[in-house]
Amino acid sequence: MLTVSCPNCGAPVTFRSASLPNRVCDQCRSMLVRSDDGVGIAGVQAALPFDVSPIRMGTRGRFDGRAFEVIGRVRWRWTDGSWNEWLCLFGDGSHGWLGEAMGQFMMTHERALDTIDPAWRLKLTRDARVGDTVMLDGEEMTIADSREVLCIAAEGELPFTAPPGWRIHSTDLRSGSGRLANVQRDGSEVHFYDGRYVTLAELKPTNLRAIEGWKAPVYG
Amino acid sequence: MAEADTLSPPQAPAATAITCPSCGGTVAIRAAGHSVTVACEYCASILDVSEPAVKLVVEHHRRRAALDIPLGTRGTLKGVEWEVVGWMARSEGGAYPWEEYLLFNPYEGYRWLIYNRGGWSFGEQLTVVPGGGWGGLELDGAHYKHFFAEGTAQVDRVVGEFYWRVKQGDTVRTDDWVRPGYMLSREADDREISWSRSEWIDAKTVEAAFGIRTESGPWPPLPHQPSPHVAWLKQALVIAGIAALAIIAAAMFAGGSRTLAEQTLTIARDGNDQSATLGPITLRRPYQPVSVRAEVPSLSNGWVDLEYTLVDRATQRAFNTYKAAERYSGRDSDGDWSEGSRRTTADFASVPAGTYDLVVDYKGNNWLGAQSIGDWRNAAFAPEMRITVTSGGAPFGVALLALILIGVPVLFGAIRHAAFEQARMGESDFAPTSSEDDD
Amino acid sequence: MRTGTFLFALYAMGITGLFMLATAYAWSPFADTGRSGPRPAGVFIGPTHK
């Protein structure tokens, strides 16, 4: 844990994990980067457009018995809409992404690319075509989507800077069992995420965002 | 103040608004962040709201749509409050129209409220793909039968906001599978396949939730509409089973017959009236059935007339009845025939306890041309009649009557259930009978 | 459905009760003569000749 003053506005900013070197200042929206030399400014983050997501910074929940807290968020856009990726910091210091799209939630964790069969690895990173199937750990996954996505804005702590206007290539995979995977490619850099659909009730979240006129559910 | 803020953060607003670039109307956005397309509720123009600057996709100048459940209406279904944010009129190429309301709750996501021919369903997008089963699909351990195959569904009209790019004329290929109360739907276009499950809901529930009134329910029933008779039928079968067991047990308990008197009488060949008295017959139970059986082994093409009088020695009260044993046989173009019986039984009901005599007045006769067993014209032949008096015995006739009376309403319910199921299945592409006229 | 089930239960109980009563009094609608059956005096019921 490292708390410093924002080099731009002086407001206190906290870095909770060494593996999350980026942070957007809550006050002035400066993109801060932590390094051995201290904390520097990498640019200015855009304002997040209004949405009615029930998740917010500080929302806590449990996934597969492990407690997490939401500490960051990236909002992405594709040709047919936008979605949120909420960064969840787990108790053991690892992190996962709680995706929120079309009113549905999905939890994914980054996984090393070399843990998947090399034959399928190439398919996923080079010529992913919608409708093609890929075997992941013996489970058949279908490529549901493969296209360029655009970063709109971000907040909180992040493993990357996520500048507004950042374009990456994203490939989505689905299985019949509710499992999903995602490959993100930015030039030669490739990240692989594996996870499944979840429901809010299953995560039993607390500290949800209060939305005017709506009763927030209480999960026992 | 600052402390209060951290304890209870300010509530985020639930909706924003945009201005329709076509008609200038103010259109509420109730699912901000999710909505991609808005069909203006005033002029029906299709707007792209995926980016901060609203873009006009298709311009329309229609009259304001009058929805049964207006946009923004809230209602509670299954314990969750939902707000109507969108509405689509869909059909199969213009025929078989239905309506779909898109419901939203920021904490629960989206659901569908589907209105079809006066019936309602509550639908949810699936995140899993149902597995294949015997001639159908399996989901969460339940089996669904294929009902509609290779249909097409088009969007005829839209109002409100949607989380995908929707427009009039959008067409998908559809398949549906059902089990009582639920339907699985598969919608496929060139790009993706989506699965949803909808649950049939009672019109009264929807009327109460959204404060509307709907017409009477659909007929034929919706494919996944559960038979309204099945719940009653199940309970009635249990009740009928208990009643039947009680009746059978009581009948067996009442059973156990006893022979009270037996006598062999000789029938005069001249056909004269004869009389005999059997007794004393002692009846011990407060009330009992008494049966008198007469058997004439040598009866052939003739008859024996019987009049029984059961007289209580103490009170002289009499029970009286007439019987006849007749037996005819012969041969004609169809071969041998016979009718009647060589025996006849008289049943006396509710005979009180006491000591009785049975007076048998009888008269035998036969036809000319009598043959076989015994020839009554033969002077040496003495036809005999055996009289047996018994009491008790299980009241099978009454028990059967009681069981039938109990079974009739169950049968009636079963017929109504079968008629409902037949009408429901008649709509299916996989209906068992294909010879029916299609209109 | 509740009312329907209740009514049928009532009906089944009624039939069962009537059956018990009939058994106790050895009554039967199929009997040739009952306890209170009128005596058909002077009526001759003859055989049905073919």
Describe the biggest sheet of chain C? none
Helix content of chain C: 40-55%
The shape of chain A is: globular
What does the largest sheet of chain A look like?
Answer: 8 strands, antiparallel, barrel
Major beta sheet, strand line-up of chain A: 7-8-9-10-15-14-13-12
Secondary structure category of chain A: mainly beta
Count the helices of chain C. How many?
Answer: 1
Indicate the proportion of strand residues of chain A.
over 45%
Transmembrane segments (chain B): 394-415
InterPro entries (chain B): DUF4178 (IPR025235)
Domain DUF4178 (chain B): 71-202
Protein name (chain B): DUF4178 domain-containing protein
Describe the structure.
The complex is a heterotrimer of chains A (220), B (439) and C (50). Chain A is mainly β. Chain A is 5% helix and 53% strand. Chain A has helices spanning 118-125, 200-203; strands at 2-5, 12-15, 22-24, 30-35, 38-44, 60-63, 66-78, 81-90, 95-101, 104-111, 133-136, 139-158, 167-174, 179-186, 189-198. In chain A, the strands form 2 sheets. An 8-stranded antiparallel beta barrel of chain A has the order 7-8-9-10-15-14-13-12. In chain A, strands 1-2 form a two-stranded antiparallel ribbon. The longest helix of chain A is centred in the middle third of the chain and has 8 residues, at 118-125. Chain A is globular, with a radius of gyration of 18 Å. Chain B has helices at residues 2-7, 203-210, 230-254, 396-425; strands at residues 16-19, 26-29, 37-39, 46-48, 55-58, 74-77, 80-92, 95-105, 109-116, 119-125, 131-133, 136-139, 142-162, 171-179, 182-188, 193-201, 258-266, 274-295, 302-312, 318-332, 335-340, 343-366, 384-391. In chain B, the strands form 3 sheets. Chain B has an 8-stranded antiparallel β-barrel with strand order 7-8-9-10-16-15-14-13. The radius of gyration of chain B is 40 Å and the shape is rod-shaped. Mean pLDDT of chain B is 89; it is low at 1-7 and 434-439. The longest helix of chain C is centred in the first third of the chain and has 23 residues, at 2-24. Chain C has 50 residues and is mainly α. The interface between A and B is medium-sized, with 33 and 37 residues. Chain B: Pfam families: DUF4178. Chain B: Keywords: Membrane, Transmembrane, Transmembrane helix. Chain B: InterPro entries: DUF4178. Chain B: It comes from Sphingomonas baiyangensis. Chain B: This is DUF4178 domain-containing protein. Chain A: Residues 57-198 form the DUF4178 domain.
